[in-house]
UniProtKB/TrEMBL annotation:
<keyword id="KW-0753">Steroid metabolism</keyword>
<dbReference type="GO" id="GO:0004163">
    <property type="term" value="F:diphosphomevalonate decarboxylase activity"/>
</dbReference>
<keyword id="KW-0443">Lipid metabolism</keyword>
<keyword id="KW-0444">Lipid biosynthesis</keyword>
<dbReference type="InterPro" id="IPR041431">
    <property type="entry name" value="Mvd1_C"/>
</dbReference>
<dbReference type="InterPro" id="IPR053859">
    <property type="entry name" value="MVD-like_N"/>
</dbReference>
<dbReference type="GO" id="GO:0005829">
    <property type="term" value="C:cytosol"/>
</dbReference>
<protein>
    <recommendedName>
        <fullName>Diphosphomevalonate decarboxylase</fullName>
        <ecNumber>4.1.1.33</ecNumber>
    </recommendedName>
</protein>
<dbReference type="InterPro" id="IPR036554">
    <property type="entry name" value="GHMP_kinase_C_sf"/>
</dbReference>
<dbReference type="Pfam" id="PF18376">
    <property type="entry name" value="MDD_C"/>
</dbReference>
<dbReference type="Pfam" id="PF22700">
    <property type="entry name" value="MVD-like_N"/>
</dbReference>
<dbReference type="InterPro" id="IPR029765">
    <property type="entry name" value="Mev_diP_decarb"/>
</dbReference>
<keyword id="KW-0752">Steroid biosynthesis</keyword>
<keyword id="KW-0067">ATP-binding</keyword>
<keyword id="KW-1207">Sterol metabolism</keyword>
<keyword id="KW-0456">Lyase</keyword>
<comment type="similarity">
    <text>Belongs to the diphosphomevalonate decarboxylase family.</text>
</comment>
């Protein structure tokens, strides 16, 4: 196989939304966390990054484009991922001289997100997971998803969890080299396929404080964070895994909301305070609390990553009580098209969301995304680079 050929592999990778949050690094160079975390992998039919990795002797240098815009590959974190993947391929080539020499060839990586980038929707997690998985497939690497998560973690911490589907933990680890700080499956998607989520997009703008900068400031200045990392999170990891194993939504939901509140409290406890939530975010919290009060139990569980967008979990049997209550006031917002949205009647729980809260949501929510628990990265033959090495344009819906 001649190296002038265009070698290609493509994958789609999911967004994950943590229910036990990752925040803070004990080693910035290796992207090692200060605490374990746990997330729900969301369905790729609703939120995904689609990436093609290609290599050829006809390319002159490594390149990356995201949504048709050139991106830099010069960051140490990105270079660490590329270096480790190339090293693994080179080892394969050394052990089997008949393999084509792909490891020295320049890479052309093309990615598309079907959701807003850098707006608190875990775009870097899906992006680095897709990049690592696509290059691993290009290089025919035999490593497991959990092993590849060690590489993806160096690009973006939460990306390690997007290498697996369903319910995924990320072990904090203790090894100085990070060899035990990797993702693991808590339960597959099929274990609790009834879990659903509605995402209220409060802002598609790039956030003012990046996660990396925010973590550094919190670790350096927040006394509350130290209590969180040392005491709260270790106990909550066990409780969350047990709630998932039992498919106990009330326990899952109550803990999810406590975790989100505590995470954002540490952001407020940072100097200067980090304000990821806005008025729309707070209205979403009040709405979820109103729905739970009207239902007489926890049926809606809000969580926020490092951004203003609300993710509200619920189970399929409570679709009308939860998603229906939001549709009752947000029926004119984009996102209700498609099977998931059409299945929501919009009757909801009458009076669950107060008028002032409803008005704040109407004013601040620009889009809703209905989704559920989903699988990890999936190989696809739909390439974003053609046989001549040119980017495929107009990939709407990628």
């Amino acid at each position: 196989m001649a190296n002038s050929e265009i070698h290609r592999a493509s994958t789609t990778a999911p967004v994950n939304i943590a229910v036990v949050k990752y925040w803070g690094k004990r080693d910035a160079n290796l992207n090692l966390p200060t605490n374990s975390s746990l997330s729900v992998t969301l369905a790729q039919s609703d939120l995904r990054t689609h990436t093609t990795a290609s290599c050829s002797s006809t390319y002159t240098t490594d390149t990356l484009t995201l949504n048709s815009a050139p991106q830099s590959l010069s960051s140490p974190r990105t270079q660490a991922c590329l270096r480790e993947l190339r090293s693994l391929r080179a080892a394969l080539e050394d052990s089997n001289p008949s393999l084509p020499k792909l490891s020295p060839l320049p890479l052309k990586i093309v990615s598309f997100n079907n959701f807003p980038t850098a707006a608190g929707l875990a775009s870097s997690a899906a992006g680095f997971a897709a990049l690592v998985r696509a290059i691993a497939d290009l290089y025919a690497l035999p490593q497991s998803p959990s092993s590849l998560s060690l590489i993806a973690r160096q690009g973006s911490g939460s990306a390690c969890r997007s290498l697996l589907g369903g319910f995924v933990g990320w072990n904090v680890g203790t090894a100085p080299d990070g060899s035990d700080s990797k993702a693991y499956e808590v339960a597959p998607a099929a274990h609790w396929a009834e879990l659903r989520a509605i995402i209220l997009v409060a802002s598609a703008a790039k956030k003012s404080v990046s996660s990396t900068a925010g973590m550094q400031a919190t670790v350096a200045t927040s006394p509350l964070f130290r209590v969180r990392a040392a005491e709260l999170v270790p106990a909550r990891m066990g409780a969350m895994e047990e709630a998932i194993r039992r498919r106990d939504f009330e326990a899952f939901g109550a803990l999810t909301m406590k975790e989100s509140n505590n995470f954002h409290a540490t952001c407020l406890d940072t100097e200067p305070p980090i304000l990821y939530l806005n008025d729309t975010s707070r209205a979403a919290i009040r709405a979820a609390e109103g729905i739970n009060k009207a239902a007489g139990k926890v049926v809606a569980a809000y969580t926020f990553d490092a951004g203003p967008n609300a993710v509200v979990y619920y189970v399929e049997g409570d679709t009308e009580r939860v998603a229906g209550s939001f549709k009752r006031i947000l029926a004119n917002v984009d996102g209700w098209d498609g099977d998931r949205g059409w299945a929501v009647q919009g009757q909801g729980l009458e009076g669950a969301i107060e008028e002032s809260t409803a008005e704040a949501l109407k004013e601040g929510v620009s889009r809703v995304i209905l989704t559920g628990v989903g699988e990890g990265p999936m190989k696809t033959e739909r390439h974003l680079v053609d046989e001549k090495g040119e980017e495929v344009l107009n990939m709407e819906g990628s």
